[in-house]
Amino acid sequence: TSSAKSSYELVTLTTWLLKQEQAGVIDNEMTIVLASISTACKQIAALVLRAPISNLTGVQGAVNVQGEDQKKLDVISNEVFSNCLKSSGRTGVIASEEEDVPVAVEQSYSGNYIVVFDPLDGSSNIDAAVSTGSIFGIYAPNDECLADIEDNGTLDSVEQRCVVSVCQPGSNLLAAGYCMYSSSVIFVLTVGTGVYVFTLDPMYGEFVLTQEKVQIPKAGKIYAFNEGNYALWDDKLKQYMDSLKEPGDSGKPYSARYIGSLVGDFHRTLLYGGIYGYPRDKKSKNGKLRLLYECAPMSFIVEQAGGKGSDGHQRILDITPTEIHQRVPLYIGSVEEVEKVEKFLA
Ligand code: AHG
Ligand code: MN
Ligand code: MN
Ligand code: MN
């Protein structure tokens, strides 16, 4: 009798999630939330792919709480994410780059997970069809924190409850991931047991497992910074940046790669090694990137891959947000590269 295993076993995200649930790594509610997020990402991928045809490039004509001119797809992606999460029935509160305040989800009837997300990252690239992405993180409800605040009765409004629920350090994340809308549509996910990469097969609309337990190289001579801000940087950072241009003992300087989408620059860094940085500068005292739904989820992923996420002095995952859209400086990527910039900044 042939004992050959069927060599054609393709693992889809759906089957991978069910395996994690059967193994007790995630519970039923988390499985449903993650499936609904992957559905949102597939819908956004389809919208992004045909944006110029369906008149979905360009601006919405509104400004978000960050003071950014919202693209049409910023707003639509936010609605797609919110609708998928609400209809999952397992989400209690959502916080988004495109929502002023966290939103309590009435329809949730179990699980009550907290989901934070950047529905369209790198959205300035949309009109030129350069890679963009979506970023998400999932927390358990922050009940103990809510309970002791309620004890001394300072928590009156639903909105305050939501803010407390959402403002957790990245070290509390149960799951984090992103979807990159690029030459392939790539879904990257960790539930705390390593980093898994799935590629969308448009033939049947499923994410197929293409890499497991990704490990970021310990070092890499690729740096992704917006050097247009060089004049505004601290002197120590300028010295770091200048040092990357000297041909080291290998005789070759670093290469610069920067596409203006954190998801795209991060994914290349995860696979090839190197560093992505968005430092503070004289104009932006805390840098540009948002802790809750950009820096923390990416730092959870990079640590799961053996890399490092820092604000230049401390671990991103140790920072507890005090407000939803709080910005922090970010240095993320290969351990040796992040430690190198931390040394210059000490
Ligand atoms: P978003 O489009 O979600 O607002 O994020 C954009 C971020 C990040 O994706 C990217 O790396 C960075 O902004 C680019 O900023 P600069 O254009 O200032 O370099
Ligand atoms: Mn934005
Ligand atoms: Mn973003
Ligand atoms: Mn965004």
From TrEMBL:
Listed EC numbers: 3.1.3.11
UniProt catalytic activity: beta-D-fructose 1,6-bisphosphate + H2O = beta-D-fructose 6-phosphate + phosphate
Any coiled-coil regions, as ranges: none
Fructose-1-6-bisphosphatase class I N-terminal domain: residues covered: 12-212
Pathway field: Carbohydrate biosynthesis; Calvin cycle
GO terms for biological process, alphabetical: fructose 1,6-bisphosphate metabolic process; fructose 6-phosphate metabolic process; fructose metabolic process; gluconeogenesis; reductive pentose-phosphate cycle; sucrose biosynthetic process
Keyword Metal-binding recorded: yes
Top-level taxon in the UniProt lineage: Eukaryota
Cofactor(s) needed for function: Mg(2+)
Record-level Gene Ontology MF annotations: fructose 1,6-bisphosphate 1-phosphatase activity; metal ion binding
Gene Ontology annotations for the cellular component aspect, listed alphabetically: chloroplast; cytosol
Compartments in which it is found: Plastid, Chloroplast
Domain Fructose-1-6-bisphosphatase class 1 C-terminal, first and last residues per copy: 216-345
Keywords noted in UniProt: Calvin cycle, Carbohydrate metabolism, Chloroplast, Disulfide bond, Hydrolase, Magnesium, Metal-binding, Plastid, Transit peptide
Quaternary structure note: Homotetramer.
Family: Belongs to the FBPase class 1 family.
Official protein name in the record: Fructose-1,6-bisphosphatase, chloroplastic
Organism, scientific name: Panicum virgatum
